[in-house]
Amino acid sequence: MPRYRTGRLPSFAYPRHALALLVLILLAGCQLQPPEPADEDKLAIDRMLSLIDERLDVAPVVARSKWNSGAAIEAPEREAQILGRVADEASEAGVDEAFAREFFQKQFDASKQIQRRLHLRWVQEGRGPFASPPDLAEEVRPVLDRLTPQLIDALGDMQRIARVEGAGRYLEARARVLVQDDFDGEPRAVALAPLIERMAR
Ligand SMILES: O=C(O)C(=O)C[C@]1(C(=O)O)C=C[C@@H](O)C=C1
C-alpha cells in the first residue's frame, strides 16, 4: 500500500526551519557589523592622527635645514630634552609616563627615517644646498615644541578610550586617510605602533 503524505509535515516543519534560518541570518548579520567607537571617541582619534601627521610633516623641513648645515640627523641631547619635558607633563596630565615616552620615542624614530631617506635621495641626485632653509633652533624646533603639549593631551584621550571595542580598527583605517606617508607607509607605521599596540580592535 502506498503511504500517502499527510501534508502536515511540510506545513508544520518548513516554517520552523525558515524561522531558524532567519534567526541564523540575523545573528550572522550582527557578527558582520563590527563594533564602532562613539562619535566623540572617533573625533579624539582623528585629532590624535592629525597631530601625528603635523609632526611628521616637520621632518622634511628639519632634513633641509640639516642638509645645509651638515648637522647629524640623530640629535640625542634634543631627544633627551623633549623626553624630560614629556615625563613631567604626562604625569601632570595623568598620562602613563612609560606610554608617553615610548610614543615620543617612536615619533623621533619616524622623523629620523624620513630625514635619512630624504638625505639619501638628495645624495643620489647630487643635490646642492637649499636656498634659505629655516633655522633649526629658532624656527623649526619651536614648531615641534608647540605640538608636544597637544600630543600629550591627545595621549590622555587615547589612554581613556584604549579599551573601547573597535577603537584600534578605526584608528588604523583613519590613519591611512589622515597621516600621509610618502615612504611606503613605514614611518607612519613606526609613529602609530605604540597606539595600535594598546587600542582594542
Ligand atoms: O630636532 C631635531 O634635530 C630633529 O631631528 C627632530 C627630532 C624630533 O622628532 O623631535 C628627531 C630626531 C632627532 O634625534 C631629534 C629630534
List the helices and strands and how they pair.
Layout: H1 8-32, H2 39-56, H3 59-69, H4 76-93, H5 97-125, H6 136-161, H7 167-178, H8 186-198
Helix pairs in contact: 2-6, 2-7, 3-5, 4-5, 4-6, 5-8, 7-8
The structure holds prephenic acid.
Keywords: Isomerase, Signal
Protein name: chorismate mutase
Domain Chorismate mutase: 27-119
Keywords summarizing the entry:
chorismate mutase activity; 0% strand; 8 helices; 76% helix; 201 residues; chorismate mutase; CM_dom_sf; mainly alpha; binds prephenic acid; Chorismate Mutase Domain, subunit A; single chain
CATH topology, which one?
Chorismate Mutase Domain, subunit A
Helix and strand sequence: HHHHHHHH
Compute the number of structural domains. 1
Helix and strand content put the structural class at mainly alpha
Calculate Rg over CA atoms: 26 Å
Mean pLDDT: 92
N/C terminus separation? 64 Å
Number of strands: 0
CATH architecture: Up-down Bundle
Shape: elongated
- Give the CATH H-level superfamily: Chorismate mutase
Residue runs with pLDDT of under 50 for 5 or more positions:
none
Helix content: over 70%
CATH class wording: Mainly Alpha
Give the bound compounds.
prephenic acid
